[in-house]
Specification:
This protein is an alpha/beta fold and about 350 residues long. Helices cover about 30% and strands about 15% of the residues.
Length: about 350
């Protein structure tokens, strides 16, 4: 068990919002100097089951890396290069994401960082009949080829699709040493929150990936506490709400108190809110802009908000017109993603 597991277990549920036990929880969000984000050190978080530490800001690839070979892709290669140069290691993709798997694998190989990345992938399949895992096996082998890897760091059941069949198959792959961690994902929170929590409590998972942001805080109610209780790592998708949060505050100045937690951009403001929850292992913002990859990674530096500051951050966002309607807005405002074609 990881050394800071007691502080993760101290995460508690609050009535209708955030309530974090402060025992063993520093302003940096974890206990111990090694987990603190100082002026020069990057914030890392452990996988509770093994204690293996990963950088706390990773990168998602849904839509953003789905770019066809005959279209310009150099900016995506540069996104990955700058992300890695800034200390990022965790890259999340899926066979469902069109060309994203292929592009991640290609660019990582060209950059010479294939084996330096912590690659997480997903399984989204059903069989021809009950307990038919042949489709899952073919998809897994295809993912290995696309990513130029002999094993993957984590494979998760994508959006709880056919979990009862796929999870035992992933457990076999883990026993064979072909994947290192297994888990489940879902981005439809709160609709699927109860199902995700149930799998955390009963599925013997290493990791779970969920939607969580300063806007969508449902995970704070039960999921994060369940993960802390059961020693399950938490990866977070949609921390920037598919660019809708940065778009909402475009042209607005950061609040003065943002400097107290080391924020120089709004993206860092939003990412540090998520990272300041001690049950969160890694946050997965996505981008097509190289400079944004560096800005996102910088959220691993400097202090994180404490409980009072987190509440202040929420109050500030709730004072901005349109914040409550974020979910009704289209993803990635101003960009068009059409099966591999991106209008920047």
């Amino acid at each position: 068990m990881a050394a800071d597991h007691p502080s993760r277990r101290a995460v508690i549920k609050g009535a209708g919002g955030v309530a974090l036990a402060t025992a063993g929880w520093t302003a940096a969000g974890t206990s111990g100097a090694a987990a603190s984000a100082g002026a020069r050190d990057l914030l890392t978080r452990p996988f509770p089951g093994t204690g293996e530490r990963v950088p706390a800001v990773g990168m998602g690839t849904f839509m953003t890396f789905d770019r066809l070979p005959h279209t310009p892709r150099g900016h995506l290669r540069e996104v990955l290069r700058r992300f890695h140069a800034a200390g990022g290691r965790v890259v999340d993709t899926s066979a469902l994401y069109g060309m994203s798997e292929t592009n991640v694998g290609l660019f990582a190989r060209e950059l010479g960082i294939t084996d330096r990345l912590f690659l997480t992938d997903k399984s989204w399949v059903c069989g021809e009949y009950l307990n038919d895992v042949s489709h899952a096996r073919r998809q897994f082998e295809q993912s290995l080829r696309r990513l130029h890897r002999r094993r993957l760091d984590a494979v998760q059941v994508h959006s709880l699709t056919n979990t009862a069949m796929v999870l035992p198959f992933l457990r076999e792959l883990k026993e064979e040493g072909r994947i290192r961690y297994l888990g489940v994902t879902h981005h439809e929170i709160p609709e699927q929150a109860a199902a995700v929590e149930r799998w955390i409590r009963t599925g013997d998972l290493d990791v779970v990936q969920i939607r969580y942001s300063i806007f969508m805080r449902e995970a704070e109610r039960r999921i994060l506490a369940a993960a802390a209780d059961h020693g399950t790592a938490v990866m977070v998708n949609m921390p920037l709400e598919k660019a809708r949060l940065p778009e909402l505050v475009r042209g607005r100045r950061l609040p003065g108190f943002a400097r107290e937690i080391g924020c120089s951009t709004w993206a860092q403001f939003f990412l540090k809110y998520v990272l300041s929850h001690p049950a969160v292992t890694c946050v997965l913002p996505a981008t097509t802009v190289p400079a944004h990859a560096e800005e996102n990674a910088a959220a691993m530096r400097g202090p994180l908000p404490d409980v009072e500051t987190r509440a202040r951050m929420v109050r500030h966002m709730e004072s901005i017109p349109g914040f409550a309607e974020i979910d009704s807005r289209p993803w990635y405002p101003g960009k068009t993603f059409t099966g591999g074609q991106v209008k920047l």
